[in-house]
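Lecture 7 notes: from sequence to structure.
We start with the chain below.
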Amino acid sequence: VQLQASGGGLVQAGDSLRLSCAASGLTFNNYVMGWFRQAPGKEREFVAAISRYGGSPAYADSVKGRFTISRDNAKKTVYLQLSSLKPEDTAVYYCAADRTVSLNRRSDEYDYWGQGTQVTVSS
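Predicted structure tokens for the same chain:
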């Protein structure tokens, strides 16, 4: 199983980015997909999760209304649209796959992880 995250970069506050995570080696639509992030010196935290067929996504309160998670099962890819970015959004963003049906917010519930993509937001 491989999850390949991409799309990070250096942006200014207020800008937007779209992260992608391409999956291989698994039956993609059997997995809930999530995004997490980890800032320097902090624990990894939940950002968003989306169900197997894209309904009823879940978001952390800190990103609700600014970030949007989506997926394309035909392309085996999950996306995270980041808008109205703030300096506190600076982190390495990871995608993850969970074979259960719940939209889990705990990182230890996820079975597979990507390598992460850096997002840096300057003020």
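Points to note: Residues 15 and 106 are 28 Å apart (CA to CA). The longest strand covers residues 17-24.
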